[in-house]
Amino acid sequence: MVNLKLVVIIVFATFLLFQNQELAAQIGEPKLSRAEMALTIDSINLKLQGNYVFPEHAAEMSKRLKQNLTEGKYYALVNPIEFARQLTSDLQSVSKDKHLMVVFNPSIIARERASTAEDRANEEAEWNKELIKNLTRDNYGFREVKILDGNIGYLDIREFVDPKHGGETLTAAMHFLSNTKAIILDLRENDGGSPWMVQLLASYFFSSEPIHLADHYNRPKNELTQSWTLPYVPGVRRPDVDLYILTSKKTFSAAEAFSYQLKQLGRATIIGETTAGGAHLTGSVIATDKFYVRIPQGRTTSPVTNANWEGTGVAPHIEISADQALKTAHAKALENSKD
C-alpha cells in the first residue's frame, strides 16, 4: 500500500492515460516495429528484475516475455495499446499479480522527463487541491452510518482515506455507533486507499495495548517496517463488540488488508465473497519513451501467518453472494447479541 496522495494521483492519472490511449487509437498512433517491441520487452524485464517484490517471479516473467517475442506472438500487435494490454495479460498470467500493469502513454512520459522540481511542486499543489475537492465531495469515503434493527451498527466505507483528511469523519461515525450491540463494516465497494486509515480503524476494535497488525517489505529499499494498533484513538474504542466485515469480489488492496489482518487476529467475522487478491505495494517505473510499468515493489504480510492474500483474496468465514451479505450479517449479529 502506498501514501493516499500517491494513490489518488496514480488512479486519476491512470484514468487520464486510458482516455489518452483511446484518443491515440482514434487519431492513428504510429505502428510499433519489431525492434521497438524487443526494446520495450528488454527494458521492462530490466525494471522487473530490479524492482519486482519477488526476484524469482521477475525471472519467470522475463522468460515468458522473451519466449513470446522469439516465437513471434507479439508481431501482429503493432497497435501500442494492444501491445501493452497483451504484455499486461502475459505478466499477470505468470505472477497472478493484479497490481502489475504495462501502460502506453508517450505524452505523460515526455512530460515527466522534462519536468523540473518546480514543475513537480506546482503539479503536486494542484493535485492536492483536486484531492481535497474530491475527498470532500465523497465524504472522505464514508457512505453511510446507521443503526439497524436490534441496535446493530452499520458503517459503509468506500475508500480508506488518509486520517489527516478522513480521521474526524471516522471519529464521528464511531461516536454514533458507540452504544450498539454489534457493528457491521461494509467493504463490498471499497477498493483500498491509505494504510494509515487501516491502522486507525483497526485500533478502534482493540484495547490500548498495541497489537501487531502487519509487516511491510520494500524490495528497492530493502526495508522492513511494521504497523501496530495505536495506543490512543479519539473517541470510543470497541474492543469487545462483535464485529462483522462484508466483502465482495470488488474489495481490494487496503480494504483487503484490513479484512485479512482482523481475520487472522480472530477479531472479526468475514461475510460475503472472496476478495480481489491485491496485496502488493506498487510504484510506477518508466520503461521507454512510450511505455511505463506499474510494478509491485513491496508486500504486506500478517505476523500470524507470515503470508498475505495476493492472488488468492481474503476468504470469508461465511461465504455468500455479496448482495446477501448484509442480510446474513445482520441476522448473525442479532442471534449473537440476544440478552
Head-to-tail CA distance between termini: 41 Å
Number of helices: 10
Q: Mind telling me which CATH architecture of the largest domain this is?
A: Alpha-Beta Complex
Strand/helix succession: HHHHEHHEEHEHEEEHEEEEH
Descriptive report:
This protein has 339 residues and is of the alpha/beta class. It folds into 2 domains: 4-114; 140-278 and 313-336, 2-enoyl-CoA Hydratase, Chain A, domain 1. It has helices spanning 4-27, 34-51, 55-70, 80-95, 106-114, 117-137, 163-176, 195-203, 254-264, 322-336, and strands spanning 101-104, 142-148, 152-157, 182-186, 212-218, 223-228, 242-247, 269-272, 280-286, 291-301, 318-319. Strands 2-3-4-7-8-11 form a 6-stranded mixed β-sheet, with helices on both faces. Strands 1, 5, 6, 9 and 10 form a 5-stranded antiparallel β-sheet that branches. Strand 5 and strand 6 (223-228) form a beta hairpin. The two termini are 41 Å apart.
Q: Could you give a short description of this structure?
A:
This protein has 339 residues and is α/β, with parallel strands linked by helices.
Layout: helices, strands, pairs:
Layout: H1 4-27, H2 34-51, H3 55-70, H4 80-95, E1 101-104, H5 106-114, H6 117-137, E2 142-148, E3 152-157, H7 163-176, E4 182-186, H8 195-203, E5 212-218, E6 223-228, E7 242-247, H9 254-264, E8 269-272, E9 280-286, E10 291-301, E11 318-319, H10 322-336
Parallel strand pairs: 3-4, 4-7, 7-8, 8-11
Antiparallel strand pairs: 1-10, 2-3, 5-6, 5-10, 9-10
Helix pairs in contact: 2-3, 3-4, 7-8, 8-9
